[in-house]
Task: inverse folding
């Protein structure tokens, strides 16, 4: 079951995705991706998945864009990907074959909202009927995420926190490797890199950060050249 | 540069006015997950947006005084620990991991206990997501070294 609104949104999504890949200005690509997320959240709202829609609108269209822009500021604004005609000849049939395979497989998918769909005949029936009695929570999505399936949510939260921690580790180390460019944000940051690896850097950086001497950083040149838009 | 005072006063004023309301809306979404769309994830993202907006537009010293850099990792860790504590607590009462209904408190029936457990878990998730997002932003902006 596909309603006309879906078709409009799908067309917009495809156009936004193709434009985001093709545009060489990465800032424009970020804006296009935010638009993509906004329309995807409309699509989710259209199938009554309001919780997913809210997260997609807040995270995909809002905060991810901010983080992407931060990444652009830390690196470079213009994509330098070269168009390789020969590679396209190889890749295009593969993509077409994959899309064809997906479309062929989607024929067997149950209709949206079909009560006999496999997803609706298992435990989900129990959740819908007993959420109120078990947890006094009218919003089944919440009781499902935070009670029936709370271990999944625990895993998701762990993933997010781990992502933040690993981003911290990677990015702090990268800045340690750049002695030539004092950060414009931190006026007192132009102290030279600690030469002795055993000496405490006092910044909460990983101890392995300083055993990688700066001249050997293959991207140091890239970082300096990248500049900020 | 991205952080720091934005040149246009219109942007500064609008963002300064909006940020507290976005933050309050985030709290609402976290607390209101039982009855409407939302919950920890969406609410945490809104909270993070409310914290990041001043950093993007207002004077740096002011923005980082409202939400210090240390708040990101702190909130992330506290939220994660809250979630884990919520999982371990029922085990002390003989229940399974994350089975809030097993916690016995006089005068509270198991269903109500699950309701409260969901609330605590949502708050934990909200704090963790908020902390993670703010931490990633601060790290990207090179602010986390202090």
Result:
């Amino acid at each position: 079951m596909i309603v006309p609104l879906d078709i409009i949104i799908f067309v917009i999504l495809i156009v936004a995705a193709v434009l985001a890949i093709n545009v060489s200005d990465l800032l424009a690509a970020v804006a296009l991706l935010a638009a993509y997320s906004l329309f995807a959240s409309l699509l989710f709202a259209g199938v009554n998945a309001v919780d997913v829609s809210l997260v997609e609108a807040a995270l995909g269209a809002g905060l991810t864009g901010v983080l992407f822009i931060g990444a652009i500021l830390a690196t470079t604004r213009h994509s330098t990907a070269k168009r390789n005609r020969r590679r396209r000849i190889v890749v295009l049939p593969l993509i077409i074959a994959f899309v064809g395979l997906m479309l062929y497989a989607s024929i067997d998918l149950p209709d949206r909202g079909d009560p006999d769909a496999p997803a609706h005949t298992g435990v989900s029936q129990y959740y819908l009927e007993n959420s109120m009695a078990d947890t006094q929570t009218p919003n089944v999505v919440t009781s499902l995420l935070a009670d029936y399936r709370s271990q999944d949510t625990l895993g998701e939260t762990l993933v997010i926190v781990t992502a933040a921690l690993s981003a911290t580790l990677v990015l702090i180390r990268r800045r340690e490797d750049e002695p030539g460019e004092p950060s414009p944000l931190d006026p007192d940051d132009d102290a030279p890199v600690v030469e002795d690896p055993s000496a405490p850097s006092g910044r909460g950086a990983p101890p392995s950060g300083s055993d990688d001497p700066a001249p050997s950083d293959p991207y140091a040149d890239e970082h300096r050249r990248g500049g900020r838009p | 540069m991205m952080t720091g005072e934005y040149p246009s006063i219109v942007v500064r004023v609008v963002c300064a006015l909006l940020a507290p309301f976005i933050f309050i809306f985030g709290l609402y979404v976290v607390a209101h997950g039982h009855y409407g769309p939302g919950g920890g994830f969406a609410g945490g993202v809104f909270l993070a947006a409310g914290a990041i907006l001043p950093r993007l537009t207002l004077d740096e010293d002011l923005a980082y005084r409202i939400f210090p850099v240390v708040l990101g990792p702190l909130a992330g860790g506290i939220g994660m620990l809250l979630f884990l504590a919520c999982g371990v607590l029922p085990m002390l009462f003989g229940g399974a991991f994350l089975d809030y209904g097993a916690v016995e408190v006089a005068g509270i029936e198991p269903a109500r206990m699950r309701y409260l457990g969901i609330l605590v878990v949502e708050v934990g998730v909200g704090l963790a997501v908020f902390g993670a997002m703010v931490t990633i932003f601060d790290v990207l902006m090179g602010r986390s070294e202090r």
Remarks:
- Chain A touches chain B through 55 residues (CB under 8 Å).
